[in-house]
Design a protein that fits this description.
Blueprint (H helix, E strand, L loop, with lengths): L1 H11 L7 H12 L8 H10 L4 H25 L1 H11 L5 H14 L1 H9 L4 H10 L4 H26 L1 H32 L1
Helix pairs in contact: 2-3, 2-4, 3-4, 3-9, 4-8, 4-9, 6-7, 6-8, 7-8, 7-9, 9-10
């Protein structure tokens, strides 16, 4: 846990750096494929210090995350046999049991599985890698990633753009609840569609 805390503090240190924007893009890319700290940490710090640039930061995080998702997909698709031991040992949430479960989610819900992982606090990297392992349609994967990650980051940006410091308190208190609420709504829509179809 000390390592994660030091990593978290190191990432926050980039917020006021001249290289904060590229650092945000690289963090979003890395988190979507192998890195444990979400880009929201840096996005929030940057948007808090410059709310008028919050949407620009959200765009950088979204693009970085989608490209990171493609990198994660590539790892799963082409290198899983070589990389799985590393991921099982060092990446939280990645294990054989979770992979089997995610494979079933992809088979049942496809697009919505990626959308839910991209928008909520679920470990997105686990789903990007699994999408490659299970050979999910790449266009569907990219489309779902683009929509869900953009919604997530632009929601954060909107709150900071309009509410500044107040948004930080709101996000720290309610963001996970809100995102799981959206996930519950998605599940209800899927169930209703299946019942009607």
């Amino acid at each position: 846990m000390h390592f994660i805390k030091r990593l978290y503090d190191w990432i926050l240190g980039w917020a006021n750096s001249a290289y904060s924007v590229p650092a945000l893009g690289l963090l979003a890319l890395a988190e979507a494929s192998f890195f444990p700290i979400p880009p929201d940490v840096l996005l929030i710090a940057m948007a808090l210090s410059r709310p008028n640039r919050a949407y620009r930061y959200a765009l950088v995080a979204s693009v970085g995350s989608v490209f990171g998702g493609i990198l994660g997909y590539s790892i799963g698709w082409g290198f899983w046999g070589l990389a799985q031991d590393y991921f099982y040992q060092y990446v939280p949430g990645v294990n054989a049991q979770n992979f089997d479960y995610i494979g079933q989610l992809f088979a049942d819900y496809g697009f919505w599985t990626i959308f839910a992982a991209g928008f909520t606090p679920l470990p997105y990297k686990l789903f990007t890698i699994a999408a490659g392992v299970f050979n999910i349609n790449l266009i569907v994967f990219v489309f779902a990633s683009l929509i869900s990650r953009s919604l997530r980051f632009f929601l954060v940006a909107t709150l900071f753009f309009h509410y500044g410091q107040q948004a930080r308190t709101y996000i720290e208190k309610y963001f996970n609840i809100l995102s799981y609420g959206v996930l519950a709504l998605i599940i209800v829509v899927i169930v209703v569609c299946k019942l009607l179809g």
